[in-house]
Structures are given as structure tokens and as C-alpha cells.
Structure prediction request, 351 residues.
Amino acid sequence: MTAVSAFVPRLWLVTLVTLAALTGTASLVGQFLPPGDQIAFMSDQSGYGWDIYLLDVNSGITHNLTHRGHNWPPIPSTPVIRYPGAALSPLNNPQMRYPAWSPDGTYLAFHANRAGSYDVYVMRADGRDVRRLTDNDVRDGHQHITEAVPSWSPDGSYLAFHADRSGDFDLYLLPIRHILDTVPPTLAALTGTAWTDVRPLITNNQSEDASLTWSPEGTRVAFVSNREGGFDIYTADLHTGRPLTRVRRLTVDDAVDLDPAWSPDGSLIAFVSQRGGNEDIYTMAVDGGDVQRRTVHPADDFNPAWTEEGDLLFASNRAGSSDLYRLDMATGTLHRLTVHPAEEQAPAWRP
Prediction:
């Protein structure tokens, strides 16, 4: 199985069998994990498609935050009916993907097709207070618009995401703090208020711009774009309320480069590249120099993310299916975090 870019919703379903089967640990539903090192990720352990999970790193316990019927209003559709070999529609089989932590670790943003098209949602870290933040197909009269892969600003004031409102993917910014600081209003009021505040970061650009990651100080961003032909990593300055400035291309290899992730100390950008013949994890300095290949394996390594200590998290199908791994950047030691024959992807370390 070959991994694809995070800005295009993945077309396959992942499956997670919790560590209970192999290590004796449990999977919790309707409970919250104890304090400790935690990773949010996406999985279809429930059997109905992607959900957002938490993994307690020390115990191996997982917790499904978005499992069917939990903390969600009724789905505007008929009940799920499975036929052998039949596909399920988005409305009766909603998908929750790509979790992103708020800087204080109290909220998770993600995208979901709960209402038919992919929109940006937010919920508390224990899965409560699920709120839909965008409603683009209603606002603009279009169908199947994708708003996806949210990313929090370091001060927690904004969510960046990408959307194909104009026909190609552009980057957008949504003020979020005032929404989280108020009592949740009705869905209609919330989506109306939030969407009018959405501001484009890149406009009038006939290319794909997606998968934004913030520098630790919040004044610069990195993202993926094919504005010069192939998919490469770019950086830009961000001044809130204005389009991106000083856009600079960092990678110039002929291969596809994707999924940038800015390190917590601000010195490195991790990314995925196919320049070695398959997808591996690389790092580079923030000026594009000192490119180093961090994983070397014939399988695909993708979805890089950082721990607070500066280690790399990523997903890999090197064991035959996608698992989560942690690479110790000081020693080069690789730790496999999940061990079973199913799949987990898109890890996000809880601050």
C-alpha cells in the first residue's frame, strides 16, 4: 500500500486492532485515558471508517474519541445498511481524519464528512463538545467542497486549513479563540459566525497549496505546493489578516515532497519525499539546506510529526500494514509504538 499526500483525503480505510490482542492492554470506549504521554491518531477500529483515537504511550491503551453515536447529534440519513461488497455513503458512514492538538492540549481539531462534504470540526480532548466550524457547501451553494487538515497557530488563536473552494486547494485562516471561549451556540449560528471570519492566506493561485505547518513562534509557515510544477515544500511569512509574503521554495528535487512538519525548536522541517524511490522521512534546515534522510526502508514512511522532546513520530507500512513509530533523533533508535496486523496513521503528540 502506497501512502498519499495528506491534502488529498486518503481513499482507503485504515483498520486498528488495539494492543489488547497482543499485549493484554485494553481499548476504552466512553472513558478517558489517565494523564501521561499521549498520541492522537486516526483509525477505523470501529469497522465503520476513520475515527480519532488516543494512544497512551506507556500503557498501550487506546480510546476512541469519535466512535459512532458518542457525542454526535443524529446523522441526517438512514441507518447504516451493509451489503456484501457495497460502498457506504459519506452520510451514513462519516469519516473523521487528521487530528491536530491545540497548543494547550485541551482541544482536538480534525476534518470530517459528517454532513456530506469534508468540514473542519473541533472537540474537547475527551471527545465532548464536538463543534462544526465550516459549512462551505451551504454558504457558497456548492457540493462536495473539501475543507481539511486543520493546524493550530502556536498561540491557539487561529486554525489554518486547506480548501478547494475555488477549484484547487488554497490555504485559509479561521479565528478560533472566541469560538472556544463562548458557550456552544446552535450549529447554524456557529457555522454562520465562524465561516464569515475565514480569511484566505493564498488567493488567485492556479495551483494546489495545502498541508500547512506553523513555525514555533507563529510568524512563518511551511506548506506543500505544485506552483512550479511538481509538489515541493515552501515557506512563507505570515502576518495575520494579510496573504502570505516572501514565499520561498525549499525543495527542488524532481520527486514529490509532502507533509511538512516544523520541529518544536524551530530548527528543522520534517517532510516526506519519494526521491529515494519510495516514501521516506527527511529533515532539512528551515532555509532548505542540510537535507538528511531519516528513514531508509523499502516500505513507505509518512505522516511525520514531532514530540515535545524533538523526536520524530511517523506512520509506516514496513511491517506489512501501517503502524506508528517513534525515532529518537539523538540516538537514531527506532521504537515501534503499535504492534498488530491492522493500520494506524496521522500521529499527533499531545502537548
Summary: The longest strand covers residues 38-43. Confidence is low (pLDDT under 50) at residues 1-33, 73-91, 138-142, 183-196. The chain is about 5% helix and 35% strand. The two ends are 31 Å apart (CA to CA).
